[in-house]
Design brief:
The complex is a heterodimer.
Chain A lengths: L7 E4 L5 H12 L3 E4 L4 H11 L3 E3 L7 H15 L4 E4 L14 H29 L2 E6 L3 H4 L5 H21 L4 E8 L5 H4 L3 H8 L10 H12 L10 E4 L7
Parallel strand pairs in A: 1-2, 1-4, 2-3, 4-5, 5-6, 6-7
Helix pairs in contact in A: 1-9, 3-4, 4-6
Chain B lengths: L2 H14 L20 H15 L5 H4 L5 H10 L2
The chains are: A alpha/beta, B mainly alpha.
């Protein structure tokens, strides 16, 4: 089960904890992967660690031209993009009344608009092949809200609405479009929190611990697989029970 | 019928699974041939592939009938 032999996957944000774990999980099941991110050296290191079936396609998703060039670049390296994982994301936290226009715009651009463009580009080939998988990494805060993250939560909630709409449009072509909503996961993003902040977070997590990026990657692997063909327009919550939706 | 019209007809018949007799110049993809909006996008993609042309979105939106497609492809071959 869950074999991805012969499938080609593009993963954005592959230098981050979750993106790297997803790329590794898809690759381990036989997929060819194209790793995207802003740090080319780190991408190269990951690609050489994975060995064969791994390519590097760096792109800064705040740059629209770079976004438009990314899908064609990945298709050129791999031949097609059968699985698109929109994982890249940034935070520019601030309390709402102090939030700058730039903080809002940057987060919406990278976390939501770049994904719109990548999905649109990827769907063309998927329609022709009559199969495809689009997976977006959203966040629990897109559903619950979070103080200091109005921009991030808006982008993540926007992803969920967009993915559901696209899912309805392309379901008849055997293309599934789903999101995964991680809760608090051990990554560089949560490493920035101090122990007191972490303790306070954990009181709201029934599982009593942070999640691991591997646990997010496992959900992505399922959604990417043939076994998940009947799952579309869904959000899989992987959060240790902190929000039961 | 021109060569282009023949090829357009073949694509429409194959893609929409309709009777060739219905694929006449004035036939609307959506109103007469049962296409949905996604089918029309796919037809344009199929025309692009068959004729090796690029059909920009602004032009694609004006291709509503079989005749529209033939006319566009004859003008842009």
């Amino acid at each position: 089960m869950f074999s991805l032999e012969g499938k080609n996957a593009l993963v954005t944000g592959a230098t981050g904890g979750i993106g790297e774990a997803i790329a590794r999980a898809l690759h381990a099941q036989g997929a060819t992967v194209s790793l995207s991110g802003t740090r080319a050296e780190k991408l190269e290191a990951l690609a050489s660690d994975l060995g064969e079936r791994a390519f590097v396609t760096p792109a800064n998703l705040s740059d629209r031209d770079a976004v438009d060039a990314l899908l064609p670049a990945a298709e050129e390296k791999m031949g097609s993009v059968d699985i698109l994982v929109n994982n890249a994301g940034i935070t520019r936290d601030n309390i709402f009344m102090r939030m700058k226009d730039e903080e809002w715009d940057q987060v919406l651009e990278v976390n939501l608009s770049s994904g719109f463009r990548l999905c649109r580009a990827a769907i063309k080939g998927m329609m022709k092949r009559r199969s495809g998988r689009i997976i977006g990494i959203t966040s629990v805060v897109g559903v619950t809200g979070n103080p200091g993250q109005a921009n991030y939560a808006a982008a993540k909630a926007g992803m969920i609405g967009m993915y559901k709409s696209v899912a309805r449009e392309v379901a008849s072509r055997n293309i599934t479009v789903n999101t995964i909503a991680p809760g608090f996961i051990e990554t560089a993003m949560t490493d920035a929190l101090n122990d007191k902040q972490k303790d306070s977070i954990l009181t709201s997590v029934p599982a009593g611990r942070l999640g691991t990026s591997h646990e997010i990657a496992s959900a992505a692997l399922y959604l990417a697989s043939d076994e998940a063909a009947y799952v579309t327009g869904q959000t899989i919550h992987v959060n240790g029970g902190m929000a039961m939706i | 019928m021109s060569d282009i019209a023949d090829r357009v007809k073949k694509i429409v018949v194959e893609h929409l699974g309709v009777d060739g007799e219905k694929v006449v110049e004035g036939a609307s993809f959506i109103d007469d041939l049962g296409a949905d909006s996604l089918d029309t996008v796919e037809l344009v993609m199929a025309f692009e592939e068959e004729f090796g042309v690029e059909i920009p979105d602004t032009a694609a939106e004006t291709i509503l009938t079989v005749g529209d497609a033939v006319k566009f492809l004859e003008a842009n071959k």
